[in-house]
């Protein structure tokens, strides 16, 4: 069952949900990991570079939607049978990094390499993510790190949750700048997936942050 869910999740993550479901098309069908008018020149340049790398199939762009389709909610019930997923709340639920308006929050696109077990996230942090004036909030940086590492772990290992996340913030990230989050799967021990990443400037000269994380694959036999 676990393998089946992981397979479903992988195909959804790589190809997007099937059209024609009952969620509103704005919420379900708009792929937010494509260029929009808020993306600056650097973001577009990096996006084009990774799309070029994707031409031979080694890298794949990961589509990204505001909310999960109904089949994802069914997956959750397998692992959390006792969870009270209230209909009204679930109908309003959105993926946290996609919940802010275009351009003001998290603008990002992710690419995954299955052979190298690597995920790259290009990220432009908007003005509503400010912490110290002029710079990104550490929580916003942590959110993108967790999301990118999460995709890396899930796409390589199956359905898992963050158990542990350690971040070293080396340099402040200027608001509205574009950075690259490089993630990799380091090793797998039983149900534990060890992943790590760094965040660098576009020219790779500045190391902004480094992180290591443990994801634990969910066990459907356990009542989580
Ligand atoms: C559920 C269906 C999901 C469907 C997904 C759908 C769509 C995905 C779409 C997009 C994904 C985007 C990516 C998002 C990434 C964001 C991820 C998150 O932020 S998750 C939220 C934060 N995390 C949590 O809330 C987790 C809370 N913790 C738990 O639920 C549990 O502790 C657990 C992590 C599940 C582990 O519990 P479990 O009972 O299963 O494990 P064990 O205790 O038996 O331990 C197993 C193994 O792991 C080691 N372990 C456990 N905890 C830790 C820890 N904190 N640090 C280090 N190691 C840990 C433990 O020692 C055991 O090791 P060993 O076997 O060697 O003894």
From TrEMBL:
Keywords: Apoptosis, Cell membrane, Cell projection, Cytoplasm, Fatty acid metabolism, Hydrolase, Lipid metabolism, Membrane, Mitochondrion, Mitochondrion inner membrane, Transit peptide. Gene3D superfamilies: Hotdog Thioesterase. It is a peripheral membrane protein. Its main location: membrane. CDD domains: PaaI_thioesterase. Signal peptide: none annotated. It is found in: Cell projection, Ruffle membrane; Cytoplasm; Mitochondrion inner membrane; Mitochondrion intermembrane space. Residues 134-206 form the Thioesterase domain. It catalyses: hexadecanoyl-CoA + H2O = hexadecanoate + CoA + H(+); octanoyl-CoA + H2O = octanoate + CoA + H(+); dodecanoyl-CoA + H2O = dodecanoate + CoA + H(+); decanoyl-CoA + H2O = decanoate + CoA + H(+). GO terms for cellular component: mitochondrial inner membrane; mitochondrial intermembrane space; ruffle membrane. InterPro entries: HotDog_dom_sf, THEM4/THEM5_acyl-CoA_thioest, Thioestr_dom. Transmembrane segments: none annotated. One of its GO terms (molecular function) is hydrolase activity. GO terms for biological process: apoptotic process; fatty acid metabolic process. The keyword Oxidoreductase does not apply. It comes from the Eukaryota. Its EC number is 3.1.2.2. It is an enzyme of class 3 (hydrolase). Belongs to the THEM4/THEM5 thioesterase family. This is Acyl-coenzyme A thioesterase THEM4. It comes from Canis lupus dingo.
């Amino acid at each position: 069952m676990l393998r089946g869910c992981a397979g479903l999740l992988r195909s959804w993550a790589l190809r997007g949900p099937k059209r024609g479901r009952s969620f509103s098309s704005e919420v379900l069908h708009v792929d937010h990991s494509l260029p929009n008018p808020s993306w600056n020149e650097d973001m577009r340049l990096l996006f084009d570079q990774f799309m070029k790398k994707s031409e031979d199939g080694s890298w794949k762009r990961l589509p990204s939607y505001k909310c999960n389709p109904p089949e994802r909610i069914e997956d959750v019930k397998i692992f959390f049978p006792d969870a009270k997923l209230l209909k009204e709340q679930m109908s309003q639920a959105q993926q946290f990094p996609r919940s802010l308006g275009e351009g003001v929050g998290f603008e990002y696109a992710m690419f995954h390499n299955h052979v190298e077990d690597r995920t790259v996230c290009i990220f432009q942090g908007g003005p509503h993510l400010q912490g110290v004036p002029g710079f990104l909030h550490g929580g916003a940086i942590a959110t993108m790190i967790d999301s990118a590492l999460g995709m890396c772990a899930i796409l390589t290992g199956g359905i898992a949750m963050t158990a542990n996340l350690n971040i070293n913030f080396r340099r402040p990230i200027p608001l509205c700048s574009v950075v690259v989050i490089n993630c990799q799967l380091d090793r797998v021990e039983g149900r534990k997936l060890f992943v790590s990443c760094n965040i660098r400037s576009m020219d790779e000269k500045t190391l902004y942050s480094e992180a290591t994380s443990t994801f634990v694959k969910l066990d459907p036999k356990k009542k989580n």
